[in-house]
Amino acid sequence: MDVSRGSALVLLGVGLFVATMVVGAATAPSGSAGGVDAPATPAPSPDDTAAPSDPDATAAPTGTPSSDEPQTLVGNQGGWVTHGSVIAFDGRSVAWRNTQADGYFEVSRLDNGTVLAAFANESSEDCGDLSAPCARTGYRIIEPGSGEILSEYSFPVGSITNSEVHAADATGDGGIAYVDMDAERVVVVENGTEVWEWRASELYEAPPDPASRDWLHINDVDAIGDGRFLVSVRNANQLLIVERGEGVVEVINEDDGTSDANCLSDERLYDADGDGDVRCGDPSVIKEQHNPQWLGDGAVLVADSENDRVVELHRTDDGDWEPVWAVDRAGGIQLTWPRDADRLPNGNTLIADSRNRRVIEVDPQGEMVWNVSVGAAAKYGPGIVYEADRLPYGEYAGSYDGGSTPTDADGTATEGGAATSTKTPLPRMTAANGSAALTAPDDEIPLLSEAVAGLQGTFAWVPIWFGELHLAATALGLLFVLVGGVDHLLAARNVSLPGRE
């Protein structure tokens, strides 16, 4: 029996797709199916290291729990701000969860045991001056165990996309600091009232209406003591130390004039005078980062998201910052868009590996010693994890030590204030540790990388090992099926195509 050309193309396309999926699954690292169970070796924490909301260092962690049954608090974005949840794990078992938001982001446990969680909802009728329905975003206080929402501070925004409150952090004196991505500012709230703000337009060139575009995408704020905050400006590839009453006192990954084109692409930074000169950090150091952690003594740990790695930066003698330690894979799997990294008291690092839908703990050499699948634990949606805290420590910070002297937008210098050295630095890494190159390569494949990210963030059934080459092979297979199907139908109607005699 002769097989028509159309039928052959259909069979070829189906065969290519099946082979792609079978080979991809067969060659996927074992870490994608649950990982390893090797326990980490607990070690004492640094003396006098402060707990998350304890700027005076009156409370000190005493050690890391056994890695086979740790308590881990996770902020799960879900999909692209759909099916969000706060999930508390005992080991790899879910202890409790809250699913009452389209997206949850940064989460942390407060001193009284309740949970602070940044969130966003796509549709609300409580819209103030905006037309209903609108999106609404802010932070919540959640009762652990029951998952009950005890209180909420939120406000309306025009769109849930690129306007969400991604981070909120206790200041240690009763306030909550949060990042208002819609207006690109950092805000401190006390008793439900805004008491302080820092607007990014004080440093960066601002568009006429900052809320009209995804201008800076400020995505994190951490209180680091003495009225100072560590702020992540994603679209500038930069971290800032902002001090109440002073403004910006240090810029991490300062603009050196060589990377402006990177930050001007996709309408990220705004060039008000059109001279092509903006405040853009070197993307090979950090690129579109999330959730930095101040380690103390001129060291910061960063989820270097668009470079698909976690990196530790140290301040050099001349005030610059350089990578000294990096991890880009664990359990045989390449990190994919990690968005949180916390240094633990035993020297290990907890990582929220977002598009791989997992939380992992790695040792100083980058070897995975524990992991949990958020994708498997999420009730709905893909389970794209945003942030994770190891309890009882959370993401606490070392003392700020003064830093360098940056230049403000008006060209004047702002002196860094004296630090209050109340906290011992967290464990630091060196180039002798880690498992990745210190200079990040630009290995994205145009269009294909964005398409893979979109699929993984939309469909829970897309496997984490599914990458650009798998997508290209799948698309080619579908093309064969489509062309073959059309050819077969036309042949059945005696319509000839080129090549058919």
Automatic annotation (TrEMBL):
A Pfam family the protein falls into: Arylsulfotran_2
Annotated segments matching region Disordered: 29-77, 402-427
InterPro entries recorded: 6-blade_b-propeller_TolB-like (IPR011042), Arylsulfate_ST (IPR053143), ASST-like (IPR039535)
Biased composition (Low complexity): 29-68, 405-424
Designated name of the protein: Aryl-sulfate sulfotransferase
